[in-house]
Design goal:
- With 210 residues, the chain is of the alpha/beta class.
- It contains eight helices and seven strands; from the N terminus they run H-H-H-E-H-E-H-E-H-E-H-E-H-E-E.
- Helix 7 links the parallel strand 4 and strand 5.
- The mean pLDDT is 97.
- The chain binds S-adenosylmethionine (SAM).
- The site of S-adenosylmethionine has 19 residues, from helix 4 and strand 2.
């Protein structure tokens, strides 16, 4: 989506103190300003409202912005687990989730997501909703692990499928681009999924696990 369109749509949503706290903290700490946009966050809330997930797994917490958006749509008994490789980011996200009233309904797990996902598979954990928003080279791996961890009917959402145009640029063949093309193909073609691609924002994939 073009930046003016994105800015217009984001401007429609009222400022929100819990989400503003996250964004201000990110700026103060010099963290990357790569949280989902306000209108995108509302879409996550809407999807969680429709899916009514009991257990949500987010890969890539940063400051907890998208986690708060997801929790807002979840039923009161729903719990969110977020995976974050950086301890300082995870601590910051935990603080923001607590300040937003979600301390008892969320956990932020520190470490490389691949290791956490392997552990969850061993422990027999199951989830109803996944939001993939971390290192792009591992998207195909995260998708495979999400399918293993999914209850039937689980929803998978993933951000940045277009990599700001690099995904469709034939001149680009770096590891993130190659991984994203593979991920996008699987969303469209994997027989275990009913997948769809939306050319919104930086590309958004949605899939239901059959
Ligand atoms: C785009 S940001 C997440 C933004 C967040 N979902 C939001 O919208 O509020 C990606 C995050 O993934 C984390 N990350 C990157 N590689 C990771 C890995 N291998 N395991 C876990 N987290 C990782 C980064 O540290 C960063 O905080």
């Amino acid at each position: 989506m073009s930046e003016p369109v994105e800015n217009y749509l984001d401007s429609l949503f009222a400022k929100d103190s819990d989400l503003e706290r996250v964004l201000e903290g990110i700026r103060e700490r010099g963290m990357p300003e790569i949280s989902v946009a306000p209108a995108y966050g509302r879409l996550l809330t809407l999807l969680a409202t429709l899916a009514r997930p009991h257990d949500v797994l987010e890969i890539g917490a940063l400051g907890g912005y998208s986690a708060i958006c997801l929790l807002r749509g979840m039923p009161p008994e729903g719990r969110l687990t977020s995976l974050e490789i950086r301890e300082d980011y995870a601590e910051f996200a935990r603080g923001n989730l607590a300040a937003a009233g979600y301390k008892d309904r969320s956990e932020t797990v520190i470490g490389d997501a691949s290791g956490s996902l392997e552990r969850f598979v061993r422990e027999g954990r199951r989830f109803d909703f996944f939001f993939i928003d971390a290192d792009k080279e591992n998207y195909p791996h995260y998708l495979e692990q999400a399918i293993r961890l999914a209850r039937p009917g689980a929803l998978i959402a993933a951000d940045n499928t277009l990599l700001r145009g690099r995904t469709i640029d034939p001149g680009k063949e770096g590891p993130s681009v190659m991984a994203m093309r593979e991920f996008n193909r699987r969303i469209a073609q994997d027989p275990r999924l009913t997948g769809a691609h939306l050319p919104a924002y930086d590309g958004l994939a949605l899939a239901v696990v059959k």
